[in-house]
User: Fold this.
Amino acid sequence: MLATRGATTPASGAGIVSLRGVSKTFGATVALQDVSLEVVEGGFVSLLGPSGCGKSTLLRAVADLVTPSTGSVEVAGKTASRARDNRDYGMVFQAATLFDWRTIRRNVELPLEIMGWPKARRRERAEQMLALVGLTEFADHRPPQLSGGMQQRVAIARALAFEPRLLLMDEPFGALDEITRERLNDELLAVWRRTQTTVLFVTHSIPEAVFLSSSVAVMSARPGRVIAEIAVDLPYPRTVETRESPRYFALVTEVREALRSAGA
Amino acid sequence: MSLPARLRSWLPPLVTAVAVLALWELAVRGFRIRPILLPPPSAIAAAVVDDAPRLLSAIWVTGRTALAGFVLGCGAGFLAAVAGTRWITLRQGLAVTGVVFGAVPIVATAPIFNLWFGALSPWSDIAVVALVVCFPTLIGTLTGLASAPAASHELLATYGAAPRVVLTKLTVPASLPFVFGALRVAAALSVIAAVVAEFFGGFRDSAGFFIKTLMANADYTGAWATVAALCAFGLLLYGAVGLAERAALPPSKGEG
Amino acid sequence: MRSGVRRGLAAIALPTALVAGWEGYRALALALDNTWPGTDVALPVAVRGTGNAQQFPHTWDVIMAFGRPYRGAGETLGAYLLGQVGFTLREVGVGFALGGLLGFALGTLFAHSRLAERSLLPYVVASQTVPFIAFAPIVVLAVNSVDWLPRWWGVAVLSTYLVFFPMTVNTLRGLRSASPQAEELLRSYRTSAWTRLWRLRVPAAVPYLFVGAKVGATAAVVGAIVGELSAPSSQGIGAALFAFGRVSNQSVQLFATVLVAAALGIVSYLAVSAAERAVAWRFTGRRGAS
Assistant:
């Protein structure tokens, strides 16, 4: 059941990501049940829910890493697998998954190598992306020398290297401490505004979801359904003042209530 | 690494070496142990110098066998493991084979190769060395190829990467630390296996034959000298593998 | 499929595949007259010879040879080899035990003293690059001068040499594997270093000790066989291999002996594996061998 409170779905109904009636069963476990969701182009949508609610599975369905048992997934107007072939999206996982044997620069170049870009162009783009996330001076270092937060920034640079229209993020800051996490939230928003990518962001942190997003999709516990879509009308750019504003607290409370009402 | 740190890591083994050599020399002279049994280091060093040309040629012969077997055996082990990434049944079969044959004393097959290739042919010895080093390399490579985390595979899946791309960009590079570990073991094993194979009946100019003859003539000093030269070669091979590892997996800026 | 059944199938599949490959090559080589098809170039391994001098006997010829006398009209090959196995097993057993104890002691020493580790570990590693086979006659001489030690102890000592290295390395790794938090917890209870060793670090080391023991078991067999080769007038499987290898008309017996040697290695490995399954779970709380 979908309760929309001020959702920003355009009248045409089709966003850059379009999920309709998606269910997924693994053996005897129903991970997702009849999920429908639209993500507007240029938006920042968080998928928020308790552990095991299927939000990661949903993200993977969009990424075509998991095939839904029923329902349809459309990304940029194509099926999920065409979108993957077309490299319409970049993905960031909870683990940074950088390759230890490559320098930072060559890690960012990885998708470009696979796509067959010429060497000079790859290098140039990698330098650009590293500048975007503020890690230019670490270009020749290797992943083990960087902290967890820095590694995730490299992962973000890598995901955006080929300028995809969509960025999928699976709890990317989940393994980091609160302080680093807040800083990376700020950086992510800055990068988002510069590149104007659409972001679909999975998290189980209510403050993070509200701070980052233009819309929060709240999911119930297993079997996962989207029980509420809450529009976040805080103005961008969002700063530390945003985190301390009354409207922010009100929205966080609203989201928390929605979670609790689903018995989460 | 800073100078004092470097010194600290080199000093204890160096001190031990000097101490052991000194004690050895003193014990042999002091307790008057028969030099036939345990020659003093000075005698061994003298023997090395005296017999240097013959030693060098013997080491060269045995070294060639060890090297050839090393390249063949490790190459085969590595390639077989890589082939196993494509067909899962093959990989399981290889894993079982690696464990089973790893438990077999391969050197026992040396007489069979002598029978097939002729005792005087280098191939009988090379075959033994190749078999000995093949299985540790196979197991090490299999472990290494499986060591890439699942998330990295998922990452490449999001790029729609073909299986060959995954192999060259992820699985094989991730396996290299394990492969080089196995290669270091193989380097040491190859020299020993070569000598053992030669003991079973090798041709005249090999180090193994040399040692056997010297032993038969009770010239233990000469035998020790040959052993010392073989050790040096083994360490050389080990060092070469280490250098290759450094070239393939260079340490990064601000490290090593 | 239950894992026991699957393992049983795998155990049968491998020898079957090997025998099939062996007989297959034999048939092919004979059909091609031992040359590459269409050329004069000889195959690498030729199938020739008759009777006991066959270079590539049928599998069943080798099996049958166990039941026949191996020399004139004396005892059967099987009985002879069984005796030799017994002899070699003594050396393997002693070598394994001594090497295991020495390796364990060294590993414990290195775990407790960084100085000892830095001074001695490089030599422990280097010791394995030395062809110990060269020492064999010397060791035997030394052992012979001790009247109360039987001669085969020389070979046992050579076995020890090959066993102590994997045991040292794995003991060291195992003792270091205990979690630092657990160590701190015990420290907070004011336990002595000795108690901590036996109650925490040794149990944590058990899986690694078995890894070392499996490598060591194989190494002990190799050491015994190679040692027998070099110590003059010795008995055992290694001596039998050498004897059958030197003459040209006992090749079938040679193949049989190689099979026995291989079996010896595998059985030693399996014995340690079985011990691991029986014992290790008590220390790790988990069933299942590595």
Summary: Chain C has two domains: 1-56, 57-284. The CA atoms of residues 101 and 214 of chain C lie 14 Å apart. Residues 1-56 of chain C form one domain. Chain C has a mean pLDDT of 82.
